[in-house]
Each structure stands twice: as C-alpha cells, then as structure tokens.
Amino acid sequence: MITRGIILANGDPPELVDLHYLKSVGFSTIICADGGANSAFALKIRPNIIIGDLDSADERILEYYKDKSDIIHFSRQDDTDVEKALKFSIEKGIQEVVLTGATGDRLDHTFCNMGITLKFFDQIKIFILHKKSILEVREGEFEFPTTPGETISLYGFDKTTLVTTRGLKYPLHNESLQFGERESTSNEAIGDIVKIAVNGGRIFMIRYFEEAKKNGYFS
Question: For a Cys staple, 37 with which of 57, 141, 185, 192, CB 3.0–4.6 Å?
C-alpha cells in the first residue's frame, strides 16, 4: 500500500474541499512546512507535523498547535522548509506527497518549489496542486484515462529529452520540448486514453485537477 501525505507550504493555501478529497484517497498525513501552519489554522485543520526553522509561522498559532501537533524545529538554513518537510516524509516512509501552498506572491519561491519536484524525483513522488491545476514529473512510457477535451500541458527542459504522444489533439512525434523554445501548452485529449513516451529525460505534466479526479488520478 502506498503511503501518502500532504505538505502545506507558506504560499497560496489550497481549497478545503481539495484537502478533504485528498484525505479521502489516502493522503492522510498533513505536514506543515513552517508558515504552512498559518494556512492550516485558517482552514481549521490539525496538521500532524509542523516542521521548519519556524520563522514564518505565527507564534500564537504555534502555541495553539503545541498540544495538538508534533512541532519540529530546525535551525539550519542549507535547505528550504519545504525540503525539510520532504526529507522528513522520506525518513518516515511516505512515498507520495501533494505539495500545496507551493505558489504565491514570490516567483522565486514558486520556481524553487517546482524545481524541488525534479530534485527529489528519485526519492519521493511529488505532485504540486495549485488552484485548478496539478503538476507532476514524468519519465519513460505511461498512459492514463482521460475525458475528451481535458486540458493537458507538457514541458521539457533540454533538447535531449524527446516526447511522443498518442491521444492528444496536437500529437508529438519524438520531439523536443526544450524550455524557452517550445512547449505543449493547453493540448487536449481526444479520446479516453492518452499515451506518452518520454525518452532521455523528464518532463512536467500539468492537468486540470477536476477532470483528472474524475478519471481516477490517484487510484
């Protein structure tokens, strides 16, 4: 059985309905990365863990949670609070996490958190949920059920990564999606199955979360 968790970072908070859905499909452990505790408090949820250097979490909120959650303080600054939460998750045997609150009003934090999905790819499966979209890193050959018209976007990073697709309105045939040169934004599913082959690297795949849920995204 896959062990799953939710990491709540200090950016734009998720919708409460999405957190309830994630818990219903097995994302049972809630970990707040530092200031994510502020969002948890606003959403009236109890995190299992609050972790980080704790310079962003409100002191009154930490006081509120001190008897309700495990609070782990790290003073080291050689990794971000999200990375601290991910390393803790890996140590505890969590295999998949949905990272929420990873985007917000600071573009550098957003960009860093997207890069973290690549940095930790070989250690833990990371999804980034932001409002209507969910992002994941993919490699190799894979397929998944879709609904005709579902929006699916693909982004590569260098010329050596070649992508082939079947089941999308604008197919790719062993083509590069090098960042800054070409992308496959707002492509569309044309049937019930999409097949993708990624050779020589990894890509970002972004899907519309509501449509993905209907097709058993986390089953």
Answer: 57
* Lowest pLDDT segment from 12-26, 29-43, 98-112, 136-150: 98-112
Average pLDDT of the segment spanning 97-122: 91
168 burial type by CB count under 10 A (0-12 exposed, 13-18 middle, 19+ buried)? buried
Give domain 4-131's CATH number out of 1.10.1740.10, 3.40.50.10240, 3.30.365.10, 3.20.20.190: 3.40.50.10240
The two most distant CA atoms of the chain are separated, in Å, by 56
Q: What is the model's pTM? A: 0.94
For range 59-87, the mean pLDDT: 92
* Region at 53 (left for phi over 0; alpha for psi -120 to 50; beta for the rest): alpha
Per-domain boundaries in the chain: 4-131, 136-214
**CATH architecture designation of domain 136-214:** 3-Layer(aba) Sandwich (3.40)
